[in-house]
Amino acid sequence: MIRFDSKALRFIFCTLVPVTMIVFGLFYTPGFAAPRDDNGGHGGVPLEIMNDPAAIACLVVFILSYIAVLFEERTHLRKSKPVMLGAGIIWVLIGWIAPDYGIDHHTLRAAVFHGLDEYGSLLLFLLAAMTYISALQNRQVFAALRAKLVQSGLNMRQLFWATGIFAFFLSPIADNLTTALVLGAVVMAVGANDPKFVAISCINIVNSANAGGAFSPFGDITTLMVWQAGKVAFFDFFPLFIPSLVCFIVPALILSIFIRPHKPLAVREQVKMKRGAKTIIFLGLCTIGMAVSFEQFFGLPPFIGMMTGMSILMITAYFIRRIGKNSDGDFDILETVATAEWDTLLFFFGVIFSVGGLSFLGYLEIVSDLLYTDLGATTTNILMGFASAIIDNIPVMFAVLSMDPQMDQFQWLLVTLTCGVGGSMLSIGSAAGVALMGVARGQYTFFSHLKWTPVLMLGYGASVATHILLNAP
Hints:
Shape: globular
Radius of gyration: 23 Å
Number of helices: 22
Largest sheet: 2 strands, antiparallel
Distance between the termini: 55 Å
Oligomer: single chain
Strand content: under 5%
Mean pLDDT: 81
């Protein structure tokens, strides 16, 4: 049986209930209606469909599935399961009521396959990227990095800064989840007798990994989505470097004051990278280059370059096994693919098809009209960062892309920044935070992170202000 303590109940009533009320209030406030086209609807779908009880049930299903996601750490129900179920229920309900509003099967299938097109390109890109990360883990590249940091002889405050800096610069190449797991292991190894150091360092790693991923198309799924949607070109993300750096530095300066500069426990850990590790690092960089160059010079989707690079990795692994014989017989890329983060990939499926269903019903047009027309792009994009801290940045960014508001590059960079770093304000706001709550169970928790949220909000505000100051047209 699942039990919720007083803190969990307080979280429900102070966070989830208001959010739910706001969502329902937003959709059913008199005077708000989806924009009409010439047929009296939105995109050929009649406006009245939003008032159908089954359409309202789709909203309820969406909200309930995300409540289940928020309690993943407590229930141990992986986040992909409720959102996949929710996506299926939403589209079944849409299919059930579609004939009543003159929506034929062709229109319905076209809407579903539009979502499949979005998901397929991102799935293949992420699958190739995750396979490279798994291959590097198999070759003990990250373990060797961890061992060097553990045995570096740095004091606790220096280790705090070292892990934060590594997280900031590793996340743009890898991803924030892998970065957090690698550096979280360092923190746990050297801070075994210092729970305060573990908690504060984990907060710093989450914040720096999310900040580092915000200025690179490869650093976070949200930046990847914006890049693949053609809203921002590859090299045009890099003006976010300084705002992202500010987002990391400002909270880190404050947090570091509370870390005592004493020496950690002596830890002996010798790890050597396995055969082929450096070759795979080189191939990974070449694969990134192919993804960028294929898109820049040939107009091909980036996943073509990633999958081509993955094929080269598979051939390389074959020769590593042949040369290494018994010592490298376990290095099978197909097994590596099997160990990819499928929970994240399937969660992404649920997000795209759930949000796609709500968009088909017209609800996102209401939100877009209210937010981007009435509040303005800058205010709305800043608020999206706070939404990503509660809901998760993937559905927030996909919702923005589905709304497709008319914005210039500065605004698309702003929402990319806010969705990328906004998740740092709560531990549940990003994959990095959720992962570290598992690694440092009992020491880094939702409430230990929440204690420092005002400091992280200061970094968030400073990064937004820096972006406006430096990059505003």
